Amino acid sequence: MTFAGTPKAIDLSHHLNKLSLSRVASPLKDIIKYMHEPGMISLAGGLPNPSLFPFGELRARVYAPETDLRSSEEHCSPIEFSIPKNASPSHKNTLSAALQYGSSYGSARLSSFIREFTSHVMTPGYSDFEILLHSGNTDAWNKVVNILCEFGDYILVEEHTYPSSQALWAPMGCKGVPIPIDKDGLIPEALELVLKNWDQTFPRIKKPHLLYLVPVGHNPTGATLTLERKKAIYKICVEYDIIICEDDPYYFLQFPPYVLQSQRTQEESGTAPSDIPVEHPNSSSELDGQAYVNSLIPTFLSLDVQGRVIRLDTFSKTLGPGNRLGYFVCNPLFAERILRATEVTTQAPSGLSQALIEELLISWGQEGYLRWLPGLRDSYTSRRDWMCDLIAKYFDLVPSPANIVDDVVAVQKGHGSTKDAVPYFSFSFPKGGMFAWIKLYLPSTSTYQNMKATSPSNENATAKWAEAFWMDLIKEKVLLTPGSYYTPIIGSGINERMPLEPDVIFFRLAFSFETREEMEVGIERMANVFERWWS
Q1: First to last CA, the chain
Q2: Structural domain count, the chain
């Protein structure tokens, strides 16, 4: 399908690796295309007989799309649907088809829904984009690497990068090229500087041609790229011929700005219980579907007029990760090469997952799905607010000085107004996703100074202190994710990583799962540990 007035993707075949260029279509395709001809009796395919599948019918009760997910009240009337074993005039979606070998493209009906949704919400900048289902974004990133990267390639990554994305290419001898980020995501000027100086910095080494990033609600930092930065990054990637892998699982969880409780109006903070959600501007109660779409920062895909963006979308954060279902949006060439790889690896996402998600989305319709998403966003916004409120409750938060790029600095409770307040950590209020990212300042702790005096290097002292501090948090029964997990691999071995910033460490806090009460206990325990180590 193409759209009048928009360009088609350009030829980017020179980015394909040798493995991808060597793949041929599965010969079974020649059989499949004849199996559905009228009157054909097939003795060719090795398809199990669906009458022997032990499932007779699948019934589901699901939330209505307008359900208020933040309310403890009874949810509004649910929607019920069923998926029968065999087709009927009223049921196109069947278990016989869902449980059978299927096309590597995935369900045509579900793909059609996604294409319409993508055209409306993402507005791709070129006309001949393709939709191809996959088994979640980890599976999708694996396939991107395996069509584009040769052994030993360098890959452009953010300076804090999701560990699984690196563990995938590290055994290939690939190396990360860390690009600095701040609270607004990857810094375009830093990306351009790396590419401009590549031949001087890495003489006789092939220049990277793939940029991997998480642009919204970045994992682990919670940063969200602005539209201005996306435009600048895309322009740089066009100039230096870089493919952008836009891994965007948190795209629909973009939050309004956080406001400290002390700065909210009486109506917002007042005397209401602290777990009552604050109504932000543009909350779902005030938005229709189109207004919600308009509130989202446009994607890289919307800026792409050449087909150099491979977008990874997933239902993991919107409908549940156990579905293991998502989709590529990319140019026809890359889609065809990914399809060839899919035919001989995963073959297709789970048929049951496809059938269930297809029936859910068809039941809701496009408008219903666009009512569900802002409600989901509002629920995670409330959770973001809980965590920030609780950090402000158990620490004093003061504005960051000019040399710290984060929004605020946390100090010991009751010491925020004193001139000699010792900084524990700084952080920025998350603008999307599920995480807060805190940066700890170690020089003011005596334990760290003692470790530095007896360690062979600052980096060794930092690592030892971080391990000891983390274990003390665990003893206090509060678990954070060490920031070192996200340090880019820059050498041929998985342990050869980007040098750590001296005298600081990082932790990731998730606000996505625990109740507010559990979150409060966890933050209070965390504050107790900080007070001990900084005393």
Answers
A1: 65
A2: 2
